[in-house]
Amino acid sequence: MTNASVATTAASASTQTAATSDTTAATADDPKAKEMANKAGAAMRDADQVRLKGTLTEEGATTELDLAWKGKDSTGYITLKGDKVEIITVDQITYITAPDSFWTSNGMPEEALALFSGKWIRVTAADSNAFVSFASITQRDQFVASFLTPTGTLSVGEGKTVHGVDCDAIASSAGGVLYVAKDDGRPIQLAGETSDASGTVDFTYDDVPTPTAPPASDVVDSNSLDA
């Protein structure tokens, strides 16, 4: 598997994850909507813990995501074309695992796959291989930043109660609505459609799973792989 293949796959995962995020923008025609969006981004960045869970359909392909952060650590997965890619970051070390079908469909030769089949791949920011691209998916600041670039302009939408929380709404002209809690502005749900994607993502702030590194015996260092 080439560096380009790994990087492209990781970028695709990150892009699909953020594709429903057109509603949380730093640029908007409506100043009130812009203020609400900025507050929502800050609330997600600053929360002690937060979990995002939902499904996105883009160009006929369905992506499932379940990502959680506690402090700077994170855990979760993204399902791409039926393959579940799991990613854990603990103490600035990221661990990635995916089924063999995921790697082979992205160009991984069988002889290379044998080096880490069924294992977790260990990656750090200091590594120079392409597996580092996957680590960015669970970096909270980077993930939130992807929520700040809309394809359309923002306006204040019609609020409603979502999962028992009284919410205001931020609507995008491209489609989609971000519902944010009236009391503190934290994101509660992202839902609706854009020109090429539809889906719903729910945000929760309680009972968030604790990120835990996999057993050392199940880990392979990415630098030992010919990526």
What does this molecule look like?
The chain is of the alpha+beta class and 227 residues long. It has a single domain, classed as outer membrane lipoprotein receptor (LolB), chain A, CATH 2.50.20. 23% of the residues lie in helices and 37% in strands. The chain is built from six helices and 13 strands. Strands 1, 2, 3, 4, 5, 6, 7, 8, 9, 10, 11, 12 and 13 form a 13-stranded mixed sheet that branches. The protein is elongated and about 55 Å long.
Condensed summary:
It contains six helices and 13 strands. With 227 residues, the chain is α+β, with helices and mostly antiparallel strands.
- Uncertain regions: pLDDT < 50 for 5+ in a row? 1-28
Helix content: 10-25%
The major sheet is characterized as: 13 strands, mixed
Strand proportion: 35-45%
- End-to-end separation in angstroms reads 6 Å
Class based on secondary structure composition and strand pairing = alpha+beta
What number is the mean pLDDT? 83
Shape summary = elongated
The radius of gyration computed from the alpha-carbon positions, rounded to a whole number of angstroms, is 18 Å
> In total, how many beta strands?
13
Order of helices and strands: HHEEEEEHHEHHEEEEEEE
CATH class division: Mainly Beta
Tally of separate domains? 1
Looking at the overall shape, the CATH architecture is Clam
Number of helices: 6
Classify the fold: give the CATH topology. Answer: outer membrane lipoprotein receptor (LolB), chain A
